[in-house]
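User: Quick sanity check before I run a bigger batch. Here is a single chain. Can you write out its predicted 3D structure?
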Amino acid sequence: MRIVITIIGEDRVGIVAKVSTVLAEHNVNILDINQNIMNGFFNMVMIADMGGASIALKEFQQVLKAEGTSLGVEIKVQHEDIFKIMHRI
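Assistant: Done. Predicted structure follows.
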């Protein structure tokens, strides 16, 4: 199952490192990353594969939400299909 992870917030050292560490700890594979920083505002979208994950999606959403809180950013995790439906024009 592919997921979309969005991270938004004030830029600071360690955001990418902390999030990618959490993914690796749960055997979630990063497939693609798009990141930019504008006027100190951090924005990143990751596509990842949970096919070999050691955690269920719902629990993983909670883990990354908590990690985002500790980093001072907002992290959302959605199933790829839900993300596509929500962002259709």
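The first helix runs from residue 15 to 25.

User: Great, the batch can go ahead then.
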